[in-house]
Structure of Adenosylhomocysteinase like 2b:
Amino acid sequence: MPALMALRKRAQGEKPLAGAKVVGCTHITAQTAVLMETLSALGAQCRWAACNIYSTQNEVAAALAEGGFSVFAWKGESEDDFWWCIDRCVNVEGWQPNMILDDGGDLTHWIYKKYPNMFKKIKGIVEESVTGVHRLYQLSKAGKLCVPAMNVNDSVTKQKFDNLYCCRESILDGLKRTTDVMFGGKQVVVCGYGEVGKGCCAALKAMGSIVYVTEIDPICALQACMDGFRLVKLNEVIRQVDIVITCTGNKNVVVREHLDRMKNGCIVCNMGHSNTEIDVVKIWKRRVRSQVDHIIWPDAKRIVLLAEGRLLNLSCSTVPTFVLSITATTQALALIELYNAPEGRYKQDVYLLPKKMDEYVASLHLPTFDAHLTELTDEQAKYLGLNKNGPFKPNYYR
Amino acid sequence: MPALMALRKRAQGEKPLAGAKVVGCTHITAQTAVLMETLSALGAQCRWAACNIYSTQNEVAAALAEGGFSVFAWKGESEDDFWWCIDRCVNVEGWQPNMILDDGGDLTHWIYKKYPNMFKKIKGIVEESVTGVHRLYQLSKAGKLCVPAMNVNDSVTKQKFDNLYCCRESILDGLKRTTDVMFGGKQVVVCGYGEVGKGCCAALKAMGSIVYVTEIDPICALQACMDGFRLVKLNEVIRQVDIVITCTGNKNVVVREHLDRMKNGCIVCNMGHSNTEIDVVKIWKRRVRSQVDHIIWPDAKRIVLLAEGRLLNLSCSTVPTFVLSITATTQALALIELYNAPEGRYKQDVYLLPKKMDEYVASLHLPTFDAHLTELTDEQAKYLGLNKNGPFKPNYYR
Amino acid sequence: MPALMALRKRAQGEKPLAGAKVVGCTHITAQTAVLMETLSALGAQCRWAACNIYSTQNEVAAALAEGGFSVFAWKGESEDDFWWCIDRCVNVEGWQPNMILDDGGDLTHWIYKKYPNMFKKIKGIVEESVTGVHRLYQLSKAGKLCVPAMNVNDSVTKQKFDNLYCCRESILDGLKRTTDVMFGGKQVVVCGYGEVGKGCCAALKAMGSIVYVTEIDPICALQACMDGFRLVKLNEVIRQVDIVITCTGNKNVVVREHLDRMKNGCIVCNMGHSNTEIDVVKIWKRRVRSQVDHIIWPDAKRIVLLAEGRLLNLSCSTVPTFVLSITATTQALALIELYNAPEGRYKQDVYLLPKKMDEYVASLHLPTFDAHLTELTDEQAKYLGLNKNGPFKPNYYR
Amino acid sequence: MPALMALRKRAQGEKPLAGAKVVGCTHITAQTAVLMETLSALGAQCRWAACNIYSTQNEVAAALAEGGFSVFAWKGESEDDFWWCIDRCVNVEGWQPNMILDDGGDLTHWIYKKYPNMFKKIKGIVEESVTGVHRLYQLSKAGKLCVPAMNVNDSVTKQKFDNLYCCRESILDGLKRTTDVMFGGKQVVVCGYGEVGKGCCAALKAMGSIVYVTEIDPICALQACMDGFRLVKLNEVIRQVDIVITCTGNKNVVVREHLDRMKNGCIVCNMGHSNTEIDVVKIWKRRVRSQVDHIIWPDAKRIVLLAEGRLLNLSCSTVPTFVLSITATTQALALIELYNAPEGRYKQDVYLLPKKMDEYVASLHLPTFDAHLTELTDEQAKYLGLNKNGPFKPNYYR
């Protein structure tokens, strides 16, 4: 991850995280290791637990432990193990965290529940996931958020890469690896035209599929029209499509009634979040191979269900290193920002990453593409009323 | 403009603008006429002047006058005429405006300068243009804005249509009408990868051009990379390109030094704003036909300059009715919102159009595409924590 | 036209057409002038008439005459003038043509009819158009073709440029100039998926239109499917589309019954050949501006008919110089080939341009794009069994 | 494979292959089983061997044997086994083949060498592969071809699907499965712009890669330009690209000198034919996982070589059933054509599949896409001079 390397290098030996004591709770992977080493090189002490009972790469956990990091995680933890690990991570004699890096909100939740006093020393929370961010906004609404929190999930760079650009590739990859389907000429309906839906639609259209879109939001609906997709209700096309893809973030988007009307061989999968979009609980399935089930009707009609309706791109393709690098760099910068912010800049609220930091994350990744940024002249900066080093856009710019 | 018709129809005889006295200053075109009739049908009284000395369609002005509207404008006004018209529009016995609809800020400026007391009765300003919005933010910063103002320029729907979708088509149209250039295989550099730049790049790439991009903002730069464009500094490619297009909103993006290095026959044009992007003031030109000049070097090298560096899409192509309809509908809704807002909702500040109104504008245009929106079930709305009628997205969503 | 210049240059003073006496019958335009000068520079004597009564550029004809060429043509000839010019062109004392360059077959037809003895000296015919080529094949079938003829219409390079690449641009240009229609979100049906249809479909899809295709040939139909277009019968979509484009080369593709079922405002145009595709003869029309008619139904429904059903790209857009250059270069090379071919290479039949010449035309146009061709090594040429200078593909390769 | 089913059904109980004795030598897969069953249902007797020592699916071979077919093949044959199987297949008492279905020419070669007298009874050869077809043309040139042969490799339908449409998907699939590379923003050079190269370029461009093309044929080169690709020599870009893809059909396209100049991490793979395109014989490699080798330089630079330079799409992705169906249907029709052709239609030469059969293959696959073909009216057919059932295009049409 050259961006984190560049970040270290640009620090030029300074330690912006000197004195920081970070407890983290994320997937334990090779990329996380590089992040922890970077935080450490920038002056922080780190203790870590896993945010998911399955995703820990044991060899990475072992290597980190050998390297002197306190890591509490292994692949295949039980529910009890999971909370025990988190507890061991934060509850240690003679060491109190002053920063939280969370992915999903479980660590934050645990501290709230068990060690609320810890928040007196904590300078801030950096939260990665949709779910964790949602919990923080609820805490904030309820007036219970007692430290500043940084919502890195909604930073522009991360959003575009996690969703639009990453899904544009992973929808193809996930479908090919599981089904070997040919895309050319296939009829596909994509439910939802947010960033994920836009990525899926663009990729499939480019491969020669005929794509229909469903939407609830008229703005996104109009964008789908202008991008060349027929905007329909699911029922209008469900009998004719070869592939159904959900990316709404909603629940029960595809239900039994739809499955009943699909044609034989139709492929159904989910690119949205969690596993709520396709209501497949009570239907009889037959596993044909890893991540692929056939739902078989009495008349022998078969529906091909991928990843049991869970996220196709997490289950059946890989997340490119480049995307993980954007996430890790964003997290590191958010920690630095919160830790070093002057008193009063951040209150007990949820914040988006400052535009300038978001731009900085992007700039650290440009060398990968041998991309050459233009600099404003003094005269131009003055004309635009901008600082030559940014931020270049208003905060709401996407 | 069926969307304005639909707006009227949905009002079902109610008069949300009853009592409103609107002074407007926009281009006087057939579309403006429909807008004025709509405002009138919704209960408003209207007086209008032109925001541009060239753009008035005299037959429209005449027809409006015949129809009983007070319109002060003609094609080819002098500078003095221009301000006389604006003055006649606002300065009338026994009638005081309570709403301003402005495009460029000249009308607002005039009232500030000549009739500041009018603001006591004015409930709000609706401003259309980049320049006008800029002026309003400056007033606001300086603490001099004395009524609420609605920045309709930055509403999502308008931005996407005015910039991304409209420019995707008008860049091709403008270049073809002026030069008959074949796009296939041409090397093109597009300066700036905002919405306008994104539209230009997408269109030219689709037509088989090889497109390079320059950017100052690392986030937009990274997007250009992911969309498949080489990110360069202008100097790196200026010798080899066949077409140079500016869309930065900046000044002096293409200067004499660049022109000197371009190859014979290179086409130079501006899709950004105003006429500042290309510095062509002192160079000897020869008009070869309307909107097309040749800049000729002593060694006979010719550069083809379009529209003297002014906006290509305004000068050399047409703005589709559909785009104008989006603008007019947005303006009408903004007037209704400001006029009917309960005391205290809006302070002396500049506001973006509420998300819900933005979505409403979009929804009024969906029937044109025979597009069928999906409705949330009660259960889904509850799950998402949304009202079934929207707004569906946070305000910062683009 | 730099390709013709390059052709002259590569001849290095040799005169491959020394002794050639060419009678030509083509559009008389600036490009034709360059062709005639090139033929002359390569040693030929030329006499020319126009192949169309409207298309002559009088100033070009005048300049050619001044330059010593015998040109018989003016803009707006009568039918009688037309044949008189052709006759003057061929029937001259003390000069007998030995090569024919024809576009449409009228010149060839005239000589057949009036001066059949001339064919004794004629070494060959180069024919440009679909119609002219069709006539030659009929002569050949009937055993009446008495000299070799070169069908340059079907050379790969010409076909791709005249049809696929040129139409990809001119369909957009023609529609914009006549109707200012916005392409995004529009539903379009394209009748015919040959090269012209492929170009139209690709362009409109790229601009965000939803495109349906009709076809009679299952191979082209399958290609349409793989390229992402719904293959339908015209009746299935005629009620819902915004634009109808014919490019079949057939007759009565759009008939009264279809017009009756189109929706209000539907645009109808022809990119195929001649004016047979849309059967509009007996319908009442109103001219709204040049090339645009409204067909108005008793219930006020309006259909927008472009160019009266004649070729949209010829009537309402321009043919890029680049495409004309390909044509002229192909014609010049075909003349050289036929004139210099050893006895017996060509019999009394219709021939396609030899692959090698077709490749040569292409190679003369590569410098325009700063394109760098790779050369085979001796070892590679041997491995492939090819001559290093081509031809590189079998004759049937497209 | 519904197309073969449809073929059987349309035969309506007739046995166009009654009396045919087919020896086949192809990959032994599930699709081949369906082909053999189809041939059998149409009246043929079949004996089969494998054309490749690795590709036999043992369970398919077993099932065919159980079903009464004589199949001589297993996965992992030795060289000796291979020829023994072929010999057993053809050399059997009391049974003499009268048709050959070959893929690669080994079966044909064996009969020529060992049992030349068999050709007295053989009515024709159907050959599938580039290599096999090449051998047949050489036999023909040498005057040694003693029966008619059908080159099904070059039929339009097969070419487009095997090459253009299939590779458009498999290049992405092969790269993702082996390297998880993100395509967005990557610089890629594609060597060769034939059908395979066109497919690769279109896919990668659509995914946001920046694609350069090398070509030896000026016609293909010009097409690359018009499609928006920079045409370069390999040396011009070799230092900067992230991915190198060969699809030339040539040898030594990427050689040591190129590998030396590539940047660290560059991915190199072959989509052309055989394993000659990349000269990697003598370089030290380290296998990192199946199909992926690292070539490591003394300075630690690594090149990622896929499939040892063999065909990426065969080694690292799957061929869609749809493409296999096209091949099998084409083979079946070619057998029927040769077997039933009246005396004298085919001489001792190599033939392309008649256009009408090619169209028939396509038509059998349209129902998969719910594609509705338009039928000519009598009047239209007459106008075009075509039979209503085709063929619709001249033989050279691609």
